[in-house]
Amino acid sequence: MLKGIDPRLNADVLYALRDMGHGDVVVIADTNFPSGAIARETVLGELLRMDNLTAAEAAEALLSVLPLDTFVEDFAGRMEIVNAPDEVPPVQAEVQAVIDAAEGKPREMLGIERFAFYDMARQSYAVIQTGERRFYGCFMFRKGVIAPED
């Protein structure tokens, strides 16, 4: 246990988040996402796991230490529902609430078409598979910067 670090963040996830640079992407995936195959194509090259958490719980833990990019529109994204891209299911609304809380203001995630999401995930830094069983519990976060102290 470390002081000030969310205990839901395991050592492998912390290593990956620390190793990422500004603009790098991390993917949070549900249990149905082809995480293993896609993770082998990422920069990290291996799958990370947060199996005992929902997507919102994993997002909350990640965003306790990960700054989101403030310079781009695609700071965060959600996998769109096939044939209903504007529909936001409860799992996605929960993660949106986590983002808003972490950012201290509403910042709406972008919708990403399913196959475009797969392609983006392959080019990401890392994929983290959660225990989320609800469909479309897949998200991306782009790492921002931490400003110098005044």
UniProtKB/TrEMBL annotation:
UniProt-recorded Gene Ontology molecular function terms: D-ribose pyranase activity; fucose binding; L-fucose mutarotase activity
Catalytic activity: alpha-L-fucose = beta-L-fucose; beta-D-ribopyranose = beta-D-ribofuranose
Keywords: Isomerase
Superkingdom of this protein's organism: Bacteria
GO biological process, alphabetically ordered: fucose metabolic process
Pfam families: RbsD_FucU (PF05025)
InterPro entries named in the record: RbsD-like_sf, RbsD/FucU_mutarotase, RbsD_FucU
UniProt protein name: RbsD/FucU domain-containing protein
Organism of this sequence: Psychromarinibacter sediminicola
Source lineage: Bacteria, Pseudomonadati, Pseudomonadota, Alphaproteobacteria, Rhodobacterales
